[in-house]
Structures are given as C-alpha cells and as structure tokens.
Amino acid sequence: MKHGVRNSVKEFRKEKGLTQDQLAESISVTRQTIIAIEKQRYEPSIGTAIKLATVLECQLEKLFWIEGEE
C-alpha cells in the first residue's frame, strides 16, 4: 500500500485484552469489519473511527494516521 490511512487498532485492542468479537460488539459492527480494519483492508467511517478510539481509550490520531505523516 503506497498511501492511505493506517491504523494500530489491533495493538490497542490487545492492550485492552479485547477479542475481535468483543470490540465489534462494543461498536456495533461485525467481527469481519474489525478483521478488515486491522488488516488495513478497510478504512472505517469517521463515526466508526471515533467509536473505536473511545472504546480503546486512545486519541484518534494515535489510532489512525495517513501513511508518511507519522
């Protein structure tokens, strides 16, 4: 992937001790959505990104960034 939004959802999820299913349920998406986000295959909506940051208790900028700007 040359450019695009990158994320550290998997790392923050593991720090919180959450499974993909638990995280998915907490933000009302499917486990498949969480898998796709973690594998950098899907860029979530801003609403979903904010929900993830809230549940994972981290700043949005720490969770998502544009590649090359970190």
From TrEMBL:
Annotated SUPFAM superfamilies: lambda repressor-like DNA-binding domains (SSF47413)
One Gene Ontology term of the molecular function aspect: DNA binding
Keyword Acyltransferase included in the entry's annotation: no
Gene3D superfamilies: lambda repressor-like DNA-binding domains (1.10.260.40)
Domain of life: Bacteria
Domain (HTH cro/C1-type): residue spans on this chain: 9-63
Pfam families: HTH_3
Keywords: DNA-binding
Entry-linked InterPro entries: Cro/C1-type_HTH, Lambda_DNA-bd_dom_sf
The protein, known as: Cro/Cl family transcriptional regulator
Organism in which the protein naturally occurs: Alkalicoccobacillus plakortidis
Native organism taxonomy: Bacteria, Bacillati, Bacillota, Bacilli, Bacillales
